[in-house]
């Protein structure tokens, strides 16, 4: 094995037609790497169309995985290896490949017509486009068919095993153990023996073939990462979100109700929660976005932990109902898995451009608690936190996630939920303990300003709630000018006081310095890596990553004061920077990108260095 | 269900302490009064009764009842009611809506609640006008009607609420009118007793913006000739002297004079369980020559969404056992780092 090289981390990008099984291939690779003890991060990048015309750039589906023996925070800026199943995949993804990187391509797919279909004017294998890259040309289609020639299966089905052939090759090249995937194939195709056999054979044949070409290409070994001891598993952000809600419902001792309407990239939360009826979860796929939140409001006033999940366009439709929940002062969690906007925008691409919508997207003065998840695993924690704050403060909470966090996966050290996620102190009354003669539904705790929660079925506490303004004392309709002023103030103060019930803001790095980077949401991974890189170079840069956005932790203003400059990188046209500057009267620099893609560490580093050097 | 027939409520037990603020003479007062009487008879504890409304004059209704009440947003009461009933199927859920709230802005939720057959009562006050926004035409306003927003006459073809409900697969369709307290009480009771979505249209007069819109069916002199009070199992006859009847003529309904040629024996007998008959009855709304039908037009049994939700959960629990979160956390592929 003279060509074996030991390296710290590798980025591989699988790409092909939407129907080629790239997401599956990538998932297998990442599962195996995680099981082998590497730290990983993944990034699925797929088109909005389910099956765009075959062989066109519109239909290219990709899956990038970054695995290493060090802590991995992002799926990687550039790929070390690109696996391209057809010319369109090569065309779309070549720019994502490192100069000098390796391309493993399916040479069977490079016919003149397919090359033309991808929009190439000349054959990229011959026109010099690929100069400087290490090229592994393999006739994957024909070699897969050859390997499966003795299996009784039609040619079309055999050809569909080519992703496992390619996977087998990459497993060999990167010294991946095949057991996890072979086990998976056995389980997946247990009711179809021919397909089972074919996929196993294709995978093994791919691996053997790579062995034969080893003398011409290098193979790589990536050792296990030194990560905290414990039991691990993998979850993507949407699954993690769903599980956070299940746990919150247990911690509160309340049934979980989800009212939802399918929308990319949030639907997987609905799919996930609909699986777990054994937890008593009720999922309601409503007729539209408005009905989705309204059924949740109905469940919430009846005593459930009520959730509604959507993405930006759906949140726009829910605006009036969110206002109603604010006016009712009832617990409700609204999830926005953000995607590129405006309007339908870029359904499958990530963005964090709905912060203003979350903060200001309703009529009237209608303050909303807002929290944001920073990475796939953090979705569990923040979904739990969103539920906790809604139930403890009797007001709706919006959880901001995004397409990148929702679909990304990383290893997750399974938390001790019995110790860490066990109690939510909701405000539901015990009717036996209430002095019914002196009670009104709007009675508040004088400290927190939180009202009691009485639900239908509680005798003697019957009351009427509406979206009309309510009298401070009785809760009845009131048009009194001073009362309206008072109620608006109370609703705002109640949300402000949530700051007493959230952790103080932490800073990564020194508490003072030349540059403070303020970030929020799914950009955490790349920003953290960029800041850490500069810190290693001796730069006085620190990171303040916000999980609690409204209200912010009480010490945020003080943190900002201790830095000479502040920069706010965001995947939008500049929203948080606006909030920070307005709130703290500072002069933070905006750094923005809206390409539907995550930040690259390199571009962030450059931006931070520029910020440091500017007078 | 916490049915209790020993409950002895009086009408005033269902009056809240709120001053009722509809226009003097509004038909809503009569509906409220009939409802308060009906609630004393349904055998449900008042803490288990929930009224949910949208926006509009009719939607102030819950404020005046001493039950749980939620005044919501325009058009969405049926969706919120669906959530209440699905979350807690033990409650008696009533949705109060109007022709604008329920058929225009809330039309989508109305048909889907009916389609799911959620066990709740939807009471739609139909005054063929927008009252609270001060007099614009609604989806039930008659063509040609002059309103604030149709100074040259309304062009829209109106809905028949009953036919819409039938098209959405309703399992209970009834109609009543604000001038007949006893009939309203009776229909409300039957609506509550029906399991599944009960759709009740109440002809209601708006004194200010559409006075007399249902006069044909409410005036002493004309109502006999223009309306039929349906009774299950009885022939469909009407007229001031009960001298008119409805017969089946081919695939159509026809009005006949009862006498020598036709007698009661020739008339259609109302069968609220007959779907074909119901399709003919709800189509009568489109024919101005035909009388209006009041009472229960249609009632059948079908699967109920909230029942199915409960059953599915019980079924999965029986099969998989009660959910164990730690088991879920450790399910699938896990690995240990030492």
Describe the protein:
The complex is a heterodimer of chains A (615) and B (338). Chain A contains 21 helices and 22 strands. In chain A, helix 1 (22-35) runs parallel beside helix 6 (162-173). Chain B has 338 residues and is of the alpha/beta class. Chain B has a domain at 11-213 and 303-307: 3-Layer(aba) Sandwich (Rossmann fold), CATH 3.40.50. Chain B has helices at residues 27-39, 77-87, 99-105, 107-116, 161-167, 181-193, 215-218, 220-226, 275-283, 305-320, 325-329; strands at residues 49-53, 68-71, 92-98, 121-126, 172-177, 198-203, 227-229, 237-238, 244-249, 252-257, 292-299, 334-337. The longest helix of chain B has 16 residues, at 305-320. Classes of the chains: A alpha/beta (615), B alpha/beta (338). Chains A and B meet through helix 1, strand 9, helix 9, helix 11 and helix 12 of A and strand 1, strand 2, helix 2, helix 4 and helix 10 of B. Strand 17 (464-466) of chain A pairs parallel with strand 2 of chain B, so a sheet runs across the interface.
What's the count of strands of chain B? Answer: 12
Rough outline of chain B? globular
Q: What is the CA-based Rg of chain A, rounded?
A: 27 Å
Alpha-beta classification of chain B? alpha/beta
Order of helices and strands of chain B: HEEHEHHEHEHEHHEEEEHEHHE
Q: Give the end-to-end Cα distance of chain A, rounded to a whole number of Å.
A: 54 Å
Oligomer: heterodimer
